[in-house]
From TrEMBL:
InterPro entries given in the database record: RGS (IPR016137), RGS_sf (IPR036305), RGS_subdomain_2 (IPR044926)
Residue ranges of every copy of the RGS domain listed in the record: 77-196
Name recorded for this polypeptide: RGS domain-containing protein
Sequence intervals crossing the membrane: 27-50
Matches recorded under SMART domains: RGS (SM00315)
Keyword annotations: Membrane, Transmembrane, Transmembrane helix
Length: 210
């Protein structure tokens, strides 16, 4: 009877893979498939192989969720992409094709300001000149209220740190909303799949190093 060897090979393969002994697990799985050919015929085996590789591919392209419970999955994925220079290149490439690269550049510069408090008026002025002036080649499409608030703060002789921070956060929120709109299209592209695989590979490498 072939049934006991089938069960043994299947269970052994599963256990080995759970302990990340992938090579040995694959050997037992191949033996399992050969026994399946003898026992059930080629059609069933083809289905098993298809299921195995489709599940592996799905695991590789799923981006691991951010651990921040306050963020939904989409926001977490976008932050992972933007805050890692190696991953950011994938969405930058797409934004170049979509003529919206200024959003990524603006996000990076705004985050630098927020990461290095207190934000100086000169830094906000530089950002305004680079990304918010209508004459700028890298002008970002931001809500009118955000632009007005930024102008108000910059027109003050000595704006408070809180006012500068509030204006910068408004800018960041506006930019992030633009990027979310872009992401809804980006996630349907091959660049997104490449980014997803790269992100998973990085997470696996981090676990191995730790």
């Amino acid at each position: 009877m072939l049934l006991p060897p089938l069960i043994i090979c299947s269970v052994t393969s599963t256990i080995l893979k759970q302990y990340n002994i992938t090579a040995a697990g694959d050997v037992f799985y191949l033996i399992f498939l050969l026994l399946m050919v003898i026992y059930f015929g080629g059609g069933v085996v083809f289905s098993c192989i298809l299921d195995m590789y489709s599940s592996r591919y799905a695991k590789r392209v799923v981006i691991i969720n951010n651990e921040d419970s306050d963020d939904d999955n989409e926001v977490a994925v976008i932050k992972n992409l933007l805050n890692n220079e190696a991953l950011r290149k994938y969405i930058e490439k797409y934004c170049q094709m979509e003529f919206s690269l200024e959003n990524i550049l603006g996000y990076v510069d705004a985050k630098k300001m927020l990461d290095e408090p207190p934000i100086q008026k000169e830094s906000l002025q530089h950002f305004y000149d680079e990304y918010m002036k209508s004459s700028s080649k890298t002008e970002i499409n931001l809500p009118a209220k955000t632009v007005q608030e930024c102008k108000r703060v910059l027109n003050e002789d000595d704006p408070s740190e809180d006012d500068i921070l509030k204006a910068t956060n408004l800018i960041m929120n506006g930019i992030f909303q633009n990027i979310k709109d872009t992401f809804s299209r980006f996630c349907k592209t091959k660049e997104y799949k490449e980014a997803a695989r790269a992100m998973n590979d990085m997470r696996v490498l981090e676990k191995e190093l730790n």
